[in-house]
């Protein structure tokens, strides 16, 4: 496990209450926790966050959980019970940040609207992640990351031309929303520091986080009426940039810089294309992209992935193997960059997990604690909030905490 260094943590002293489950809200909490924030995760008694049981399990818990919830403290608290809501308010009153990714109106139904929480804690930064945002005609519709990817425009492009749209393989809509949320939290904390200590609400919609990454999609439609369509592995309007078959797999080649293109063509024995006047800039290459792709594909097809990588790397042409999980786990660059960490779990085994991103030189992120079991920190957190052991025991007897 990557232990804390002697360097100060970037978010040391920031206290976060995380309410919500699965991916978007908790990924934001994970990111803040890795840079020193104290993250108190509130989970429902019984099963807790459903992510504990998603995908592949070991010792009864998802190994995904070990990544998503490291550096967090788990409080098992029934937010449907009035006593549970009172405890949540006590925790929020002492927090800097509240993260929630419930359907809009849920907090209000518990008597914890932003206005009510700001009356309790004027400096509170409230991050609200939802499918469609807190306003607008769709606000009450259920929304998951996949729906955000569809509405945000991404799914229309993730396909081979004329074939069914496919997902990118991970919950990218949720993760993009989480990262936008983390950026919003940082800006709101900075504003609070330099402008008198007032908190604010950050409203992140899943589809808007995806849409924000869609590059020239809307300007092209506005200016030209052009609807960008699926292009498979190619990068439309930029050439050459595509995936090419090898004798034992696939490589991605990005030869779309003017000088890079010339080096690429020389490396594959196509000096005629390197010297062609009309291929000296991107517009000319786009006009002949099918011919260029065919030339590259014909050259790669008879060679192994490694042979292609060696030749093009020597020519200073960006080229990449399509990595599997095994490739990542065995790659020396990942190791050298501390992007593969061995993390001990509270279930008694160790697992390799992703490292911390981004890398800060003075205040690096760390993995300080492993992911908690459900309710591991309930008693300690409630005691810190001022509850007596008798009060804690009574709440446990009532099933409000676990």
Automatic annotation (TrEMBL):
It comes from the Bacteria. Transmembrane segments: none annotated. GO terms for molecular function: transferase activity. Pfam families: CoA_transf_3 (PF02515). The keyword Transferase applies. Keywords: Transferase. Coiled coil: none annotated. The keyword Hydrolase does not apply. This is CoA transferase. It comes from Paenacidovorax monticola. The lineage of its organism: Bacteria, Pseudomonadati, Pseudomonadota, Betaproteobacteria, Burkholderiales.
